[in-house]
Amino acid sequence: MGFGAPKDLSDCRGFFLQPANPKHRMYEALRAYFVEGRPSAQVARDFQYSAGSFQVLCHHFRRDPDPSFFVSTRPRPRSQPKKSASRDLIVQLRKQNHSVYEISETLKLHNCPLSPTAVREVLKEEGFAALPRRLDSERPEDPRPTVEPIADVRQLSLAPRTFTTRCGGLFLFVPELVRLKLDSLVQAAHLPGSKMIPAEHALRTCLALKLWSIERHSHVMALVADEGLALFAGLNAFPKKSFLSEYSSRIHHAKTTQLLAAWHARVNPDRLFDGESFNLDFHSVPYYGEDPVVERHYVSARSRRQPSILAFLAQDAAGRAFCYSNADLRKGEESEEIFNFISFWKRTHRQLPHHLVFDSRLTTYANLARLDQMGISFTTLRRRSPQLLKEIVLLPRSAWRTVELDVPTRKYRTPRVYEQNVSLAGATFRQLFIQDLGHDEPTILLNNQPRRLSAKKLITRYAQRMLIENALSDAVRFFHIDALSSTVGLKVDFDMVLLVLASGLYRILAKTMRGYSDAQARQIFRDLVDIPADVTITEREVQVSFHRRSHLPILLASGLLDKPVSVPWWNGLKLRLTTYNGPSTPNS
Prior knowledge:
Structural class: alpha+beta
Strand content: 15-25%
Number of strands: 15
Number of helices: 21
Largest sheet: 10 strands, mixed
């Protein structure tokens, strides 16, 4: 490394005393310390080093066997053996007008593989320009990506044919969709549609993804070529992710509420919702990004506050199906959402809900007094304040009484209970202190029901609130309600309504399957729905033959097979569910 040639004596002196090059400065500093014997602090100050860094520099210099100050550290060109060995072949193939991808494939056959990028670099070094884009007819006959048709109901073909579908279990829901007249829900909610994908077909498409446990809209591309999925929706091809992501943004909260009301009107004769008791809870759908629309809420799965969309969910305690949802909430509106649910239930069923069970943070004490004035019974937790904990500690042992819960599978069946009346927000409630329930801290229950309802029944009923916790866990793991497809809350609002419809359909299906009445949706899907089938379309019917599976006898005993059902969106063709017997053998 050269330092340049000085012009006169002053320049020469300044060249050594005031070095500008880092290597030169290091050399002069070390020489002043080791040769001239100047103090370390003075050398560090003269050459603009800190005392500590100069000591480290001296330390490394003592241990460097061959210090170099005037040798260039610029890296030398490195050889590339693979490129060098393949260069002649690459040039030869390019002269034959082969593309970089074709050259890369040829090199693999000659045991000297190079990526298309490496081939392109070699050609650039040799002075070759890029080939002009060729027509498809001019390209070699290699496997290429398939172009799937555009979804258009006018192109739906019901010509006789046979094909195999991975989504055979979806057709188990078709008889219920026909009986419940899903198309009438679309008309009642005035959902948007088009000539290519009408509103009822769009709803069946979105519902199919929820029933088949598709996590994100983009994941549908793995099944977009499945003819069975398209036939379920009544289309010639299943819509792509762009349509699915855009469609829900056209549905505002008023339409989702109308869709829920129409759903209740359809399933009410089936008693899907018992209507006696409900479990209520909030769920925060986390969002990982930045958007001014998305507010910060507490996410229990992360035990922290983060950007998320808050959703309110209500579950029928007896039917175990979600019956209400609302993800169009803003901060400050949480405590009033319970009354929105009450108003919805009254409009839909012409009566108030009888009993509500919820957590302590769902609403305020003033709203508990409002519920009491409306004649709605409730059971909720009360927050453990230091004053209440002190009161519990000071209670004598004789004040507690032991009750035995009628839950054989529960580990803690004999909790201790102390009951009293308490006045909150101008109303009087029953307050229960509960010990030995399996928690480190005592449980405090608030209830406005008369004392003729025993404490044992109150504790047992609140313990059943875990049903909604389990249902939310199932909704996260199977229905994927935490998989945001965008930052817009309205899309999550529509996704929650699809959750209500899908969970209800799974509960209806579970009632027809022996032993699955209390099973969660993911278990029903794993055992009974996730099953391939052969679909045969004839002039009179669509026959779906399920492949043999270990749980097929349960389907046979359900009574759903060999019962033709006329499907309106198949131009009146009947659906017949059967089992696949396979080809016959000489010994059969």
